[in-house]
Design goal:
With 426 residues, the protein is α+β, with helices and mostly antiparallel strands. It contains 18 helices and eleven strands. 54% of the residues lie in helices and 13% in strands. Strand 9 and strand 10 form a beta hairpin. It is found in: Cell membrane.
């Protein structure tokens, strides 16, 4: 080394630190790279993304290559600085100690922290091009990597660790997927984000949460006179109606309203038998069926309307395919003018809202930004009756989740009208 000019030695030191920084930056960038984005680029035919994924599938070999190279370059840099110090100042212990401390500082700042911060800041931009360098280096270093990994695997076995046992487990839980969507920021439009979040909820929401309750179900009683039945059909806003005999728990079929109204153009007298012949088999659904499962059942059975029953077979309400679709993408249609009116509620200028007692709690929470509990009763009437443990004499007020709820009208053993007051801002 005595014959090598100092400038050559300093140039070599610079190159050693640069190479060490390259491997440190590449390691951090590869580990921080978004694998889903890389897979997307790979599907589009990106050769760099394909190479990067190939390396990440061999994490043990990749880390061995990076750490071996990093260690060798750092050791060579330390040895070179020590040699330069001895040449310049002789065998002085203080000089050697100071030179060792100096090179350690250089390596920490320029070959470790700075490159790793850069790698973590721009993971994909750095991982893609560096993978094209690391792959051939990995092929050239196979014997060295194999030799080092031989001792590593023996050490891991000694501690009972199976290498790579979780390396390829990249499956995400629904909650993790939800977090990814929520953190999508400006990359996902707000409407798309809302739809995706609603899709996750389909596994936790049952048909009972979105059904039209029994008291609001429009149905036909076959025991009524035919003239009265036809009058109801001509003023009906629905395309299909449940049909029962005597009381609603005895549903005998589903009637297609348009086909029934077409009978009016016939010369023959319309009878109950004509209507009964047009009925299709009713489709019954247990009330605790999950929405996503029911969506699949609708698709498999080519159905669009189902009657929801409880464990005793009593009718609780009905749900349609449109109800489930609206739960996913938001409301896009209304069946009746009354439904449109009911759906348009919100806070007024005084921070109050007047609601029907049969309004679903989920709709109240969504539209008014409240947090009424959803694990019990499904309507305002049910929640208040459960809290009060009796049918109240209006008016009465109580606080639920920081919201003042006032019972305005009670009729037929049910709370008919409720006034909500907006919670004070915290």
């Amino acid at each position: 080394m005595d014959t090598v000019p100092f400038w050559v030695q300093f140039l070599a030191l610079f190159l050693l630190i640069l190479c060490s920084a390259f491997f440190a930056m590449a390691e951090t960038a590869l580990m921080a790279a978004n694998r889903y984005r890389l897979r997307h680029e790979a599907k589009r035919g990106s050769r760099k993304a394909i190479t990067t994924l190939w390396l990440l599938e061999r994490t043990d070999k990749l880390l061995s290559l990076v750490l071996i190279a990093n260690t060798l370059f750092n050791a060579a840099a330390t040895a070179l600085v020590t040699s330069i110090a001895i040449q310049a100042f002789g065998h002085d212990d203080n000089v050697i100690t100071l030179s060792t401390g100096g090179v350690a500082f250089l390596l920490i700042v320029f070959a470790e922290i700075s490159p790793k911060v850069i790698g973590a800041t721009f993971p994909e931009k750095i991982a893609l091009p560096t993978s094209m360098v690391l792959k051939p280096l990995m092929s050239l270093s196979k014997p060295v990597i194999w030799f080092v990994n031989l001792f590593v695997s023996m050490l891991l076995k000694l501690f009972g660790i199976k290498a790579g046992s979780h390396a390829h487990d990249t499956r995400l839980s629904p909650e993790e997927l939800r977090s990814i969507v929520l953190e999508g920021g400006n990359f996902i439009p707000q409407k798309h984000k809302s739809i995706l979040l609603n899709l996750f909820d389909l596994e936790t929401i049952s048909v009972e949460d979105i059904m039209t309750p029994r008291s609001q179900v429009e149905a036909l009683d076959l025991e009524m006179p035919v003239a009265e039945i036809m009058r109801e059909l001509t003023t009906c806003y629905h395309n299909k109606l449940p049909v029962y005999e005597g009381e609603i728990n005895r549903i005998v079929g589903i009637l297609h309203v348009r086909k029934a109204v077409a009978l009016l153009n016939q010369e023959d007298e319309i009878t109950h038998q004509h209507l009964r012949a047009m009925l299709t088999t009713p489709y019954f659904i247990p009330r605790d069926t999950r929405l996503f499962t029911q969506l699949q059942y609708f698709q498999e059975n080519k159905e669009r309307l189902g009657i929801i029953v409880d464990e005793y077979g009593e009718v609780q309400g009905l749900v349609t395919l449109d109800d489930i679709i609206e739960e996913m993408i938001g409301e896009f249609t209304t069946s009746t003018p009354s439904a449109a009116k009911a759906d348009s509620f919100g806070w007024d200028a005084q921070g109050e809202c007047l609601l029907d007692g049969a309004t679903p709690l989920r709709d109240v929470n969504k539209r008014l930004g409240l947090n009424f509990p959803l694990d019990g009763p499904k309507t305002l009437n049910g929640m208040l009756l459960e809290l009060l443990q009796e049918i109240p004499d209006a008016p009465i007020s109580l606080k639920v989740e920081q919201c003042i709820v006032e019972v305005v009208q009670v009729h037929d053993q049910a709370i008919k009208v409720v006034k909500l007051r907006r919670p004070a801002a915290r």
